[in-house]
Amino acid sequence: MANLDVQRLRKNLLKYYGKFNVLPSNTYELSSDMDSGNCAAIIDDITSYLLKPAEKNIRLELSQLFKECENPEIPYFEVVMDIMQFMNEFVGDPHTVELIFARVNNDVARKKLEVEDKIYYTNDEWTPEASEAAIQKLRDMGTERDYQFMVDQLTDVLSHFTSEEGIKTVRMRLNNIIKNHCQRELNDLNFHL
């Protein structure tokens, strides 16, 4: 049995708790005649008590990292119909909208191949067949990242039809369309932690 100065130990523990900005835990089990096994058990209890808040914060921060990296698939035809409807309202000429959308859709499909499959085409190699295959892949497996690229492209093109304030409105409306079609699986991740 070790002979401990309990008053001094309690004082030092209070200072130590202060380092972690937590309220002191129960120190009544401390006595002047404790063996190393009892001391080790108390040290384990205090350690877990001090780590609980940090562990919770770490879990929440990691959860947020996972949520931010989620790239959910989005149903192509539903989102395209909403985007086309918005563009028709904004531009007013359905033929112009179709031309703009065909070009942007092609660019997005090409970018999807470059980012995901690491397949790069020169302009000469980008044939109608390659374009159609890429667009089909976008239709089958389009993700939020792909549609964010589409929003960027469409905002750039539509900026020629509006003012600086109008560009912000266009981006916001297009982002809302994408957001409305996203079905995030990780929203309830915090409940599982």
- Give the overall pLDDT as a whole number: 86
Number of H/I helices: 7
Tell me the strand order in the biggest sheet. Answer: 1-2
Judged by helices, strands and strand pairing, the structural class is: mainly alpha
The profile of the biggest β sheet is:
2 strands, antiparallel
- The strand count comes to 2
Strand fraction = under 5%
Overall radius of gyration: 29 Å
Terminal CA distance reads: 41 Å
Helical content band: 55-70%
Give unreliable regions as ranges: none
The shape, in one word, is elongated
Sequence of secondary-structure elements: EHEHHHHHH
Brief rundown of the structure:
The protein has 193 residues and is an all-alpha fold. The protein has seven helices and two strands, in the order E-H-E-H-H-H-H-H-H.
